Amino acid sequence: MTPPVTVRVRFCPSPTGSPHVGFARTALYNWAFARHHGGTLVFRIEDTDKERSTEESYEAMVGAMRWLGLDWDEGPEVGGPHGPYRQSERGDIYRDVLAKLAASSYTYDCFCTTDEVAARRLEAGSKTMGYDGFCRELSDAQRAVFEAEGRKPVVRFRMPEGSITWDDLVRGDITFETEHVPDFALCRANGDPLYTLVNPVDDALMDITHVLRGEDLLSSTPRQIPLHQALVDLGISTVVPRFGHLPFVMGEGNKKLSKRDPQAHLFAYRDDGFLPEGLLNYLALLGWAIAADRDVFTMDEMVEAFDIADVNPNPARFDLKKAEAINSAHMRMLSIEDMTDRVLPFLKHAGVVSDPVGDADAQLLEQAMPLVAERINKLTEAVDMLRFLFVDEADFAVDPTDAEKLLDDDGKRVVQAAYDALADLPEWSTAAIQEALQAKLVEEMGLKPRNAFGPVRVAVTGRRVSPPLFESMELLGRERSLGRLQRALA
RNA sequence: GCCCCGUUCGUCUAGCGGCCCAGGACGCUGGCCUCUCACGCCGGAAGCACGGGUUCGAAUCCCGUACGGGGUACCA
Questions:
Q1: From the CA of A314, how many Å to the C1' of B55?
Q2: How far apart are the first and last CA of chain A?
Q3: Could you read off the pLDDT of A77-117 as tens digits, one per residue?
Q4: Residue nearest to nucleotide B75 (CA to C1')
Q5: How far is it, in rounded angstroms, from Cα A301 to Cα A36?
Q6: Does residue A105 come out as left (phi exceeding 0), alpha (psi in the -120 to 50 range) or beta?
Q7: What's the Å distance between residue A193 CA and nucleotide B34 C1'?
Q8: Of the candidates A162, A215, A242, A392, which lies 20 to 30 Å from A259 by C-alpha distance?
Q9: What gap in Å lies between CA A149 and CA A135, rounded to an integer?
């Protein structure tokens, strides 16, 4: 199933709150679909809900897309021929479309209050919820009565008779009987347009060909298709887009990942040291597979292989462990230079190096990164791994728990022996250090390697977990290394 | 209540009628490697929700049931 070459998709979050992982997954699939087909990705901001939309959230949405590296062809900051791309700036457009719709009686004014509708339903014992069409065929006289009462109408779409069927890109044929789809409101009584109007209208006006969105919007599709058809009929647009409804990303338990869930926040992963490409790769796996026996891939590879028809319709649970494992695979794909660049902000933030970083520290970092690159799974892990190299001697501290475990009396004897072996070492190199310690601690004292080097490691790096010991000591230098050994004996 | 969607190892998935007494990954687990950690390598346990059909043959198609999810707003 090859879509036309003129693929145009959109990603249109509402700027309410902080972007979450579902946001990223939907953005990713739209992006991959657009790129795969050489199409256009429109980034639109759905901020018609003035109560909940915030500028801060808008900035976060744009920032999230930038961090993820998902670029868009039309939208905020890049413009485009169908702007503006924030719905709060498109009021005139919606008013105009609403007027055209009303003139062709696709819509009607409805004066009912929510309470009245509910009361009628109760009385009739009706099984269907939603609006009952009371104002569909209002006479001028009835209308006049309502207006005399000072009522302001909402505008409702007149749902056609029959059924609505579409071939969902993810799920295949889906049919709704329109008797189960009540006439819905397109704008508030005060004239403010609602999502129900604005979303399909913008898709139509922006020539969107494929709508890929969350499963939660599936039941709004039977309302949107007739509206699109009305817009085509009125010459406002030319085609009804195709729809594809993506499965949810679920959290713990079996609930859709909600914004209140701490695990849901996208920036939490950024701050935790995830690589955007690692997170994206993991998110892609939640509903799509590149091959039967493979799950680590680059975004280029995803673009090449992505087919919306392969997307799995059932909801997927977010698994942090696997996300970390995938991220770790991407960490190992990074060059040392690249990883260094990405680790640097975390080192600065933790105060391990100054900002901007000094020449000496930069050089030390360059030498140290190869030692840690293979043993960290997230960028943040470099901080604890490297701190001992950069810290001032006065501020150097040994982890109390590790000290208690390894720097007991036996441990101190080992450290003393290590000091003796190294004090007069003619050449301070990894090989020489290793040779000297090996000879003294292992061969002479008969210690097992892990028991020999453990106490030394804690004394020198401050932790039981560190980069390789001998290399670390070389980088630290003779004076600081010996100083720390001595300090551990105190 | 009504409408819609979904259901393969604990989790994410491959599978689109015979290649499957179901493959991969994460996790778990036994071992190897090893100066810690991490990486890497070898092995193991673990799954087609249930019941009917259709068919020579079903994880794959159809129908029910159960369970899960979504919608049912002058939110998006």
A1: 28
A2: 74
A3: 999 999 899 999 999 999 999 999 999 999 999 999 988 88
A4: A49
A5: 10
A6: left
A7: 66
A8: A242
A9: 15
pLDDT, position A4: 52
Q: Is the CB of A282 under 7 A from strand B?
A: no
Give the model confidence (pLDDT) of A239-295 as tens digits.
Answer: 999 999 999 998 866 667 776 677 889 999 999 999 999 999 999 999 999 999 999
Cβ neighbourhood burial of A425 (10 Å; 0-12, 13-18, 19+): middle
Contact positions of strand B to protein Cβ (< 7 A): 1-8, 10-15, 23-27, 34-40, 68-76
Write the ipTM: 0.95
What DSSP letter does each residue of A28-95 carry, written as one string?
Answer: HHHHHHHHHTT-EEEE-B----TTT--HHHHHHHHHHHHHHT---SBBTTTB-TT---BGGG-HHHHH
Write out the two tokens for A200: 């399909």
Question: How do residues A147-157 score in pLDDT, each as one tens digit?
Answer: 999 999 999 99
Can you tell me which residue has the tokens 């728990």?
A: A401
Comparing A327 with A132, the larger pLDDT belongs to A327
- Nucleotide whose C1' lies closest to the alpha carbon of residue A448: B35
Rounded to two decimals, the pTM is: 0.94
Q: A227 beta carbon < 7 A from strand B? A: no
Nearest residue: Cα versus C1' of B37: A465
- Nearest in space to A459 (alpha carbons), one of A436, A476, A440, A438: A476
Q: In angstroms, rounded to a whole number, what is the distance separating the alpha carbons of residues A23 and A208?
A: 19
Q: Give me the DSSP letters along A138-162.
A: --HHHHHHHHHTT--PEEEE-PPSS
Alpha helix segments (H runs only) across A286-358: 299-305, 320-331, 336-349
Sheet (strand A242-246) strand order: A40-43, A8-11, A210-214, A242-246
As a rounded value in angstroms, the CA-to-C1' distance for A155 and B38 is 62
Cβ of A439 < 7 Å from strand B? no
Question: Given its phi and psi angles, is residue A247 left (phi above 0), alpha (psi -120 to 50 degrees) or beta?
Answer: beta
Whole-angstrom Cα distance, residue A448 to residue A285?
44
The rounded distance, in Å, linking the Cα atoms of A32 and A301 is 10
pLDDT in the model for residue A118: 85
